[in-house]
Amino acid sequence: MDTEKVYTTSLRLYKSRPVHHQAYRYLKEYNKDIFKTKDDFIAEAIVYFAKYLQQEEEVQQMKLLNTLLENQKEQFCKIVKEAVSMAQEEAFEKLGVLEKAVQGELSDGGTIAEDREKEEACMEKDLRFAEFYGAFEE
Questions:
Q1: 3-state SS string over 66-135?
Q2: pTM for this model (two decimals)
């Protein structure tokens, strides 16, 4: 055999160790219809187990990430509520300034009432939006 085409290693299994005994038993009873040699069986087993361990590590990382995101959800909801509240306050302030300016220019109160109804409808939407995000905290 050409030594450049072959990896060599040795495997030592101890009779006193239960896992080694079990591994030896599997090596003796491997399925020869699937694997041509013990080398193929061992190589496949090592690759399969390494991929399994990598997958388990990724699952643990995803669980940790989900936990972190779950913990951040409360802070996110709080930030959204504060932002909506601040936007509503600004809108009410602007509404008051706008109403005063319009009252000074117009003598007809019907237009102001219509504008006010439109603004109140918009505020209602904002309040429903805030309630929607508030539902996540419970």
A1: HHHHHHHHHHHHHHHHHHHHHHHHHHHHHHHHHHHHHHHHCCCHHHHHHHHHHHHHHHHHHHHHHHHHHC
A2: 0.46
